[in-house]
Design goal:
Length: about 450
């Protein structure tokens, strides 16, 4: 090794370690917001949602006290309360649309509505959007039964409550990103609300950076196996993008990018943010779009080419999902608040908050991220373009072995090019932009450049 190269590497290592210590400092504002997420408040929201009797997609829309219509109006009225403290930036609406009878789970043409609150970004030239959702609708054993009580406390009162809690806390702050808080409908009948929103976003070319679906995030006891654990949450992400062009598929195969879809990069980002900000909660990365043969509201977003993941409790309790309320053989069936763990729900809401706040304050991700391949060498050279210089303090090069589930090393640099002593034959890389408070963009996976 030439002496000058040795000096360079030594300096690089030294600089890396010093800088790394700086950027792992917590942002006090994110910590403060997390303390504002309360288990008691989440519990009150879930109980209020249950009080509408049923929130079946095809249930009563006229009553003020029962059915999906009353529930939608209540969620909107809560958004309007939060708006009062948002300096005029939070606005709400019910986005109505009609779904034609489908011969399956929609008997007659039906009007549906997604309840949405939009927290407008502070920078009008910044079109980035983040979405967090839960589904408002509920069901019992017969998916067409729109009359019986369907409390839907955990499925998906939990996801709606988490989303609303974040709307309340985050709308008191300002972010350059626009954040959409949505209670979608029609999930149990076939993901209709989420599909409507995803197709609208695609048609209008929204710049969605991340979509977080929260569906069943408040139960910590499994049926049958009786596992009790409120320290882990699953985050599901697709392996290869649903939507990819022939060229993108070619590039994916060429660069061995089978475990680094944008959604999976987001899932790892969530794990990192959660490790940093949420005590006693571990993100369990599940390398599937959703549970085996099942789907959720993030799926139509993935199918329309957006980066989307699902949060879901670690262990499901099938005695309390999609069940008529009844007691049989001393087992009480039904999705009721009494079976939920609101401290667990609080931690998962906090994980969503740490993710969204970090992203919403992050500089724009670097562009044209490439890895040089012209020479055979055991070093790897990465180059990229700064998307934004105003907020960007530097960049993190993320490194892991090909068989590792998550990033193992971070190297901080201020330049837009780096040569590191890690061979591209043995490691995978990504680059993210970072500001002084440690808010990082989503990482970008490099493409080969000659
Ligand atoms: Zn659900």
């Amino acid at each position: 090794m030439k002496p000058n190269l040795f000096c360079y590497l030594f300096a690089l290592l030294l600089f890396t370690q010093v800088s790394f210590a700086q950027i792992t400092v917590d942002d006090p504002e994110i910590k403060k917001m997390i303390t504002e997420v309360k288990a008691e408040s989440l519990e009150n929201t879930v109980k209020k949602l249950v009080s509408f009797g049923t929130r079946h997609t095809l249930s009563d829309t006229k009553s003020k006290t029962r059915g999906i219509g009353a529930a939608q109006q209540w969620v909107k009225s809560e958004f309007d309360k939060y708006a009062l403290e948002s300096n005029g930036r939070l606005t709400s609406k019910i986005d109505y649309f009609t779904i034609k009878a489908d011969g399956r789970r929609i008997a007659v043409d039906s009007q549906m509505g997604n309840v949405m609150a939009t927290l407008k970004g502070t920078d009008s030239s910044d079109d980035r959007v983040l979405i967090i959702s839960g589904h408002l609708d509920s069901r019992v054993t017969d998916v067409m039964d729109a009359k019986s009580d369907a409390p839907g406390a955990n499925d998906d009162g939990s996801g709606v409550a988490a989303m609303m809690e974040l709307a309340k806390v985050m709308s008191k702050r300002s972010f350059p990103y626009t954040i959409l808080f949505v209670a979608v409908t029609g999930e149990e009948q076939g993901l209709y609300g989420a599909r409507h929103l995803a197709e609208l976003a695609k048609k209008e070319n929204w710049n969605i950076v991340a979509m977080l679906n929260n569906d069943m995030v408040g139960n910590s006891l499994s049926s049958g196996t009786n596992l009790r654990d409120n320290t882990k949450v699953r985050v599901f992400s697709e392996a290869t993008p649903y939507l990819e062009t022939e060229d993108e598929a070619k590039m994916r195969k060429l660069t061995n990018r089978d475990n680094d879809s944008p959604s999976r990069l987001l899932a790892r980002y969530i794990k990192t943010a959660t490790d940093q900000y949420v005590a006693q909660l571990e993100v369990n990365l599940v390398y599937r779009n959703d549970r085996f043969l099942r789907g959720g509201d993030h799926t139509p977003f993935s199918q329309n080419g957006f980066t989307a993941v699902r949060f879901c409790e670690m262990n499901e309790n099938f005695d309390h999902q999609h069940q008529d309320l009844r007691t049989e053989n001393a087992i009480k069936y039904g999705d009721l608040p009494e079976f939920m763990d609101f401290e667990y729900l609080r931690k998962i809401a906090a994980s969503n908050l740490a993710t969204l706040a970090n992203l919403a304050w992050a500089p724009k991700a670097p562009t044209n991220v490439g890895i040089e391949v012209k020479d055979l060498t055991n070093f790897s050279t990465l180059v990229w373009k700064a998307a934004e210089t105003k907020k960007t303090y530097g960049y993190q090069v993320l490194i892991r072995e090909t068989s590792s589930t998550n990033w193992e090393k971070m190297i901080f640099i201020t330049d837009t090019k780096t040569t590191i002593p890690y061979s591209k034959d043995n490691f995978l890389f990504a680059v993210q932009a970072i500001d002084e408070l440690g808010h990082a963009s989503l990482p970008v996976f490099p493409i080969p450049i000659r």
